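Feature request disguised as a bug report, sorry. It would help if multi-protein outputs had a clear separator. Right now it looks like this:
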Amino acid sequence: MGDPRAVPLVASTIRLRSAERYAAEALGALGVVGPEYDGFDARLAEVTPQGFDACGPHEDTLGWRYLGARSCVGKPSGGRVTLPLYIRQPGVRLVVVRARRDDGAPVRTLVRVNGAYAATITLTARWEESRFLAELPAGDVSFALDVSRAAQSPAQVWIDHVVSLPARQ
């Protein structure tokens, strides 16, 4: 409903092993990813990030109209799409990524932080949220989805949000 008093409760529900699907999305809809929580949310992208072709609304499953779903789309250059992030709190963080590929079979995708391997996630043709623990440095961070090793590299990759939260199991 847009009430900012819900932010602490919503953030507290996000865990590494969790069945909920829309809590990180709700943080973005409440406008706190970026200003209050480290990460990127396409809703707040006033300009298209370097390396991406466009940002705009996308149709999604339940709640897309209410949550104002937006994403940024890019073609993997050199097998990667890279997003700049600013991390205020360094250390082991829970990273939540909501992304998808254009179409086709699922693709195992390396996540790189400042060029170093951080995790492996799967990109599918549907919006999926992946979660992993990673050591993140403070300051400007290069966050990349690397599909260069995929047998069938996607023509395009969409990113809705990347959220960095205190690590909790």
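(second protein starts here, but nothing in the output says so)
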Amino acid sequence: MTASHSDDPVPYRNIRAGERLRILGDLRGAVLVSQPISIREIGTGGVQVESDFPFHVDTLYELRLDLGGRSVVVKGRVAHCSVAEMDNDVVRYRAGLQFVELPVHTTAAIDAFIEDLKTGRLGV
């Protein structure tokens, strides 16, 4: 008699769209996790941020920027990162990220936000 899985509380269903292959060597990946950061400076070419974690130089990150009621996602390459502050068990890092591959509409949103900052239309 063969074992049946029909008695399982949640029956297993194979819903894969395609074949998967076992990796015999070492294939690395990364999990992207949303972490809060503080934007300290913004310009048309990039941002300076502070965070509780270090950024790795020359690494690309995706950042969500809240630009006065409008949210955009940008890619940024880390130009530099250093310790900004140390207090007891808390370390704060400051990093500069250069924008990479910005779509035209994102560039326009950043430019408009910067103009609003200059003219005092935003209370940031």
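Even a blank line would do. Unrelated, but nice: Helices lie at 104-119.
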